[in-house]
Each structure stands twice: as C-alpha cells, then as structure tokens.
Specification:
Elements lengths: L3 H11 L12 E4 L8 E5 L4 H10 L3 E4 L16 H11 L3 E4 L2 H4 L5 H8 L3 E8 L9 E13 H11 L8 E3 L5 E11 L4 H7 L3 E5 L3 H10 L3 E5 L1 H23 L4 E4 L20 H9 L4
Helix pairs in contact: 2-3, 5-9
The protein binds zinc ion.
Length: about 290
C-alpha cells in the first residue's frame, strides 16, 4: 500500500507542476504525505458534491482537473463554500491533488482524451510547447477524421460520445459542410482562434465560445465551430488519467482502487430549445403574430 507522497510523486511525473501556466494553481491542496492510499477518485471539479462522493466511496485521494483555490485566500472557514470543501476533506482524511494546465499540455493530455472520445486521429498539438523536442506536448490537438463527416454528423457524434449535459452541442456554420480535419481543445478555447485559423482545419470543437469571437471567426473563414459544455470536454481526461494511474499501480504492485466520478458538475442544468430555429428572426415573428400565409 503506497503512501500519499509516493502516489503524488507518480502524478507529478505524469503532469509536472512546473509545466502549468504561471497564473495556475496546481499540485497538492490538502494531504498528509505519510498517509496510506488505497482508493483514488478522479473528477473535473473540486466541489462539495464530488467531495461528498469521495467520502461515500471511502477514497483517500481526490484528483481534480480544476483548482480549488486559484487566488490567495484568508479563510478556510466552513461557512464558505470552498472552506466547507477543505473541512470535509480533512475530517475524512482525504487528500486533494490538482492537475490543470499541466494536464492540458501533457502527452497524453486533456485534448488527447477529448479526441479519443470522438475517435479522431491526433496529428499534433495546436499550440506546441517549445520546450518539448518531440513536438508532442502543447495546448489543443489538430486531428484528422478517417472518413469525412458533415458538420451535422460530427456534432451528432460529439453529442453521443461526450457525457450528456443540459447544453448539448451548439454549432456555428454550414451543417452540411464536410469536415476532414478538426482542432479540439478541452475547456475554454476562445483564445485559440488565431492558431485554429493558422492550422487551416475545417472545424474547431471546444467549450465556452462567446458571441463576438465566434462572429468574427465565422466572418473570416468557413471554419465550423462546435461548442460543448466545458465539463463534458474535460471529463474524458478523468478516464484517461485514471487508466494511467491504474497502470502505475499495477507496475508498482500498489493495488490501488481507482475510480472516475460520473457526477455531472456542469453548472448548467436545463435547456429549453426554441420553438422555431430559423436564420431570420422575421420568420419566427410572423409565426408568433399568426400572420396569414
Ligand atoms: Zn476547465
């Protein structure tokens, strides 16, 4: 049975903390280095719901993608949302470890898991890490499809293969356009438009896309955009990461029990589809007014 410090060393070997962005807060948030570890839970968000799940499971270590604290704090009082998380973890002897942007840029990383979930063949990183001589690490991935799909079919595949969320998949672009190459980036991909355009791909699948950047990207190129729920684009990494730790456990004879949380922690909980979707508001207005036809 390994100690926490040994498991953390293995995790930091997969996702070295020094490879995280300067603004990020990764690594061990809560934990006693000498504590024994038998059960590990992977999840995207370190929220109370997930911590309660870790308690029920009898986990000794929770590994999340998102940090608990990104900025400095002066309190972990249990009356605060994050303080309650810290209290629950410590009272139940559960450690918390975060792998965020250091897992994004890893090889394999968050976007490899996303590409894998969609059966896309990864060609290379969208934004290569200059410190990687092999050119495999970096943000996002450029991928190829074995057989071209229409934008509509690719969106349907994403909706089917990614875990279900209230949002589903939003699409910008011609639904019948053919996609042979696609860039993917787990999490918020707004800032990557220039790199996506430079890559010359047919489509870009990411999360948290906003009106103005999408509007601008559409004006400049025929690039199709697919916007999934942030949580759903990062969840496949939990399964990848869990399988990586499983392998390490087997190699070392640790006998760890490694789990992946299936709790949906995407903050959006419902979606009402418009009655009529049309490219012109006039059509919908006419219908609403009951104009003669
Ligand atoms: Zn994220």
């Amino acid at each position: 049975m390994p100690r926490l410090s040994e498991v953390i060393a293995a995790l930091e070997n997969l996702w070295p903390p020094e490879r995280a962005e300067a603004w990020d807060a990764v690594g061990t948030v809560v934990g006693e280095p000498d504590q024994d570890v038998t059960r590990v839970l992977f999840a995207v968000d370190p929220v109370q719901e997930i911590v309660d799940e870790a308690v029920r499971l009898g986990a000794d270590l929770l590994v999340t993608h998102h940090p608990l604290y990104l900025r400095g704090t002066t309190t972990v009082a249990a009356s605060t949302f994050k303080g309650r998380v810290v209290h629950t973890l410590i009272k139940n002897d559960i450690a918390l470890h975060v792998a965020h942007t250091n897992a994004d840029t890893a090889d394999p990383g968050v976007s490899d898991a996303l590409a894998g979930a969609l059966d896309l063949r990864v060609v290379g990183p969208l934004v290569p890490d200059p410190s990687d001589p092999d050119g495999r690490r970096g943000l996002g991935r450029i991928c190829e499809l074995d057989h071209p799909l229409t934008v509509r079919e690719l969106a349907a595949r994403a909706a089917e293969r990614l875990p279900a969320t209230a949002q589903g998949i939003r699409v910008a672009g011609d639904p019948d356009a053919l996609v042979r190459t696609v860039a993917v980036s787990g999490g918020s991909g707004d800032s990557l438009f220039d790199r996506v355009r430079a890559a010359g791909v047919d489509a870009f699948l990411t999360a948290d896309l906003r009106h103005h950047p999408v509007s601008e990207a559409r004006a400049h190129s025929p690039l199709a955009l697919l916007d999934a729920a942030h949580w759903a684009t990062e969840w496949p990494w939990c399964e990848l990461a869990a399988s990586q730790l499983d392998e390490i456990s087997d190699r070392n004879g640790w006998g760890l029990r490694v789990h992946v949380s299936r709790t949906v922690t995407d903050p959006w909980t419902a979606h009402a589809a418009s009655v009529t979707t049309s490219s012109t508001v006039a059509t919908a207005t006419t219908t609403a007014q009951g104009a003669p036809n």
